[in-house]
Amino acid sequence: MTDTESDQGTPAPRFFRARAVFDGVSGKLIDGVGLLVENGRVTAVGPENELVGAAAASAGVEIVDLGDAFVVPGFVDSHTHVTIRPGEGNQHWQLVQPAVWQTIRGVENLRRMLRSGVTTARTMTEEHDIDFEFRDAIARGEVVGPRLLVSGPGMSPPGGHGSAAGGVAGVGPLREGVQKRAERGANHIKIFTTGGVSSAGTSLGESNYSAEEIAAIVDEAAKYGLTVGAHAHGGPGVDLPVENGIHTIEHGALLTDQNVARMDAAGTWLVLTHTILFHPEGIEQGDAAEPSIIAKVMEARASVEAGIHRILESRIPVALGTDSMHGYLGFEAEWLVAHGWTPSEALLALTRNGGRLLEDETTGTLASGSRADFVVLGADPLADIRAVYDVVSVYRDGRLVVAPDGTLTAIAVQP
Question: Who's near 138: CB < 8 A, 6+ residues apart?
Fold first, then answer.
């Protein structure tokens, strides 16, 4: 059997034969091993002769020969939006367009994600309940896309970055906002504690919310078992969330020594989103006609370049997100390697770290009990991280969702 075959229903146990496997655990490529998969989960990683032996067919194990390929865990986009396209500009305007317009665009954006190897994505603000609906439609097998974990609308004070559809402030209203999102079925909560690069007239360092407001958000979310991620770039807009129990800082383009030290001490996650900032098809293209926004792009780029060593030298756990640059998650890993990370560290940030950020040890690794979400690469990513662009095929729950010819298949998601 080959990986060009589409497989519906519940497949028999399978052994995926490949040149090598990056399991997301050891941080190394393991030569001469493959994956034994059953019921959507990895049951073992090891040599074929040990796991299935010579009598594979008689034992009911199908062999899927992936040839001279490299298998890595499915990529985790730890910060994205389903409906936005930064290269088209005015992202806040895009977020408040009619639901039908946004939904149509979202279908193609999800396809781009999956084709690039993203099997799990964490959405960080949508309107109209679009992310909830897409999450559930993908889980039912009605729409092609990665498994989604969603936040619903982010919370920002009136007039703040991210408040295009209406802001919220004050301890009481913020607690109510968390409750509303949790009861709708949010997987996490998103807030904006600083302004953004893509909005004019907002600060990248001052905090939109007080310590009391942030503490209330985090406390209310914890009642529902939810973590909180804060859009924040630097200054008090980072310090206050970190001091009040935030789970993740999203972006962090203007992090200071103090910000980094406090995040390091607290064990706060950092989700880097450099593609939207550095790739020429990101904000630079979309908002080229807005001088105030382009000035922020240049300020943020200079700050990141000057301070990225602080992150590398710290113990801050790092995951990667595209921030709606659908299909470009590989650029995040390439950027890390260009700035001092090893290819293994960058690949772990794309995979295992994403699962850990989500507090799901079965995502982002290929070990016994892991979800059988994996990407088949045509080249060795540890020899050249740009191999993450060479996606031959993609599997989710052990089933082919992106074939070598680019064909996409919708499947129901394992719970």
Answer: 110, 144, 145, 146, 147, 148, 410, 413
